[in-house]
Write a structure and sequence with these properties.
By secondary structure, the chain is of the alpha/beta class. The protein contains 14 helices and 15 strands. It has a single domain, classed as 3-Layer(aba) Sandwich (Alkaline Phosphatase, subunit A), CATH 3.40.720.
């Protein structure tokens, strides 16, 4: 029986684009069709953010508290096995089309090694078939040059919209300087199809990572105008920005300095001063970029069907984290809100059609994906993994003793340049973090450094407007969830060696 695996990771892609508030407004026909013949995990969450940490967790099956690559540029210690290193044990050559955002371990490299000068590194075990990175040299730039494009001297100017109708200043929704057939999304898809065509008789594990709809938010025509700003619902917001700031010091500190300046080229980082029109236009461009990714994912799915590989291939589509998109007057992904942590997960298992069309409403986490894929090819997941295999769900079964909550954590400090949060609160980098427990009823957010907690009733207040943490009537819930979080951290502390015991007969594993 042939066993191929296609895992597609879409960067900064909200779950509600496929199931929720935006799903009825954004046209994503290929993903929506795939959902109807797959197992859809409706309560799937990233365990950390932003890009680098979230991918480190996805690829190692570890919580960030264990792998400690907690911010972009933090090295991932080489001791941790990855999905790629584990699949090599099963005889696969793991293929990468795009990027992993995993920074190299300096303990095994000379200080002059180029891998220590670029945080967008390669996770151990992968063969980098197509190099496409967000902030560093990629083969896409060379492709544009061979097609006659004049590449701006300043790299980020490549993502500056081209002003229309003779205007001297481009609008947010003006098109990118490159055509749709030449975009990074199109290029990655073209190269992926070329390489997969050469491997049709092999089993393979292919990781395809789309940068879009990650900022800068600029889209090639016609995707820049695929949606009118009025077609999408307005952001989910409390009554006023001031009310939002008053709800917690972390939210107030978010606006003390410009932030998310890469949202679009020319943005000054003042999220609190953005006009409603600019917000609406940016949301529409984001939707257009998501539609572009959907189109190209459709090309890959159609290729698998046309080449007879569709029913040999496990298809996994997910995201590293979400995007606030102006909800709660915020942009980006380093918040405890659902828009940031809740991500889609679609899995089509061709060998278990009984799982097709099923929706799973149990809590699942990004750390579950690597154990699942290894389980699918008959490999025992590494003993260090924190995640659990989702294979029973794909068979239409519910595993016993499944988790009742999700856990996530985010660091908002920096070891070299103190962040706006560190400056506002006088915190060290080691105090600048929060952790989240979310179950059927409540979401509890614990902040380090003496900052007060957050508590949301997710049934009565799914939009997370009302922080209940300071209300005496909810003191019991605060204590309960603080205990749950402590228990969780104690239970899932890194256990690769603690599950071993050396005896007279040799090493034994639990």
């Amino acid at each position: 029986m042939k066993k191929k695996i296609l895992m597609i990771v879409i960067d900064q892609f909200r779950a509600d684009c496929l199931n929720g508030a935006l799903s009825g407004h954004i046209k994503l026909p290929h993903l929506q069709a795939l959902m109807r013949e797959s197992t859809c995990f409706n309560r799937h969450y990233t365990v950390t953010s932003p890009c680098g940490p979230s991918r480190a967790s996805l690829l190692t099956g570890l919580y960030a508290m264990n792998h400690r690559s907690i911010r972009n540029g933090n090295p991932l210690p080489r001791q941790h096995p990855t999905i790629a290193s584990e699949f090599r044990k099963a005889g696969y050559e793991p293929l990468l089309f795009g990027y992993t955002d995993v920074s190299a371990d300096p303990n095994f490299l000379h200080p002059n090694d180029p891998d220590l000068k670029n945080y967008e590194g390669l996770a151990p075990g992968f063969s980098e078939v197509v190099r496409l990175r967000s902030e560093s040299n990629s083969s896409w730039i060379g492709n544009l040059k061979t097609k006659g494009y004049e590449i701006p001297a300043a790299y980020w100017d490549l993502f500056k919209p081209v002003a229309a109708n003779g205007s001297t200043k481009p609008a947010i929704s003006d098109p990118a300087l490159y055509a749709a057939e030449d975009s990074d999304t199109a290029y990655l898809t073209n190269r992926t199809l070329e390489e997969l065509c050469a491997r049709e008789q092999q089993d393979w594990l292919s990781l395809v990572t789309y940068i879009r709809p990650h900022p800068p938010l600029v889209a090639p025509a016609p995707y820049n105008k695929a949606f009118a700003p009025s077609e999408l619902p307005a952001p989910v917001r409390p009554q006023s920005l001031e009310k939002h700031k008053e709800s917690h010091p972390y939210f107030a500190a978010n606006y003390t300095h410009p932030a998310n300046e890469g949202l679009y080229i020319g943005f000054d980082g003042r999220q609190d001063l953005m006009s409603d029109q600019d917000v609406a236009e940016l949301r529409a461009v984001y939707a257009g970029l998501a539609m572009e990714v959907d189109h190209h994912i459709g090309r890959i799915l159609n290729y698998l069907r046309d080449s007879g590989q569709y029913d040999d291939t496990l298809i996994v589509i997910t995201a590293d984290h979400g995007e606030m998109l102006g909800d709660h007057y915020m942009w980006g992904k380093e918040t405890p809100h659902e828009a940031s942590l809740h991500v889609p997960l679609i899995i089509r298992d061709p060998h278990n059609p009984q799982g097709h069309g099923i929706e799973v409403n149990h809590f699942t986490e990004t750390i579950d994906i690597t154990p699942t894929l290894l389980d699918w090819v008959g490999e025992e997941p590494n003993i260090s993994f924190n995640g659990k295999s989702l294979l029973p769900f794909l068979k239409g079964e519910t595993p016993q003793s499944w988790r009742s909550h999700i856990f996530a954590e985010v660091d908002f400090g920096d070891p070299l340049e103190p962040t706006r949060f560190q400056e506002a609160f006088g915190l060290s980098q080691f105090q600048s973090n929060f952790a989240v427990i979310r179950d059927d009823r409540f979401k509890y957010v614990h902040f380090n450094g003496g900052l007060p907690p957050l508590l949301f009733d997710m049934r009565a207040d799914p939009q997370e407007f009302n922080n209940l943490a300071a209300e005496p009537s909810h003191a019991g819930e605060l204590l309960h969830y603080a205990n749950v979080m402590l228990d969780h951290r104690m239970s899932f502390a890194h256990h690769a060696t603690s599950r071993m015991k050396i005896k007279e007969t040799g090493i034994q594993y639990a």
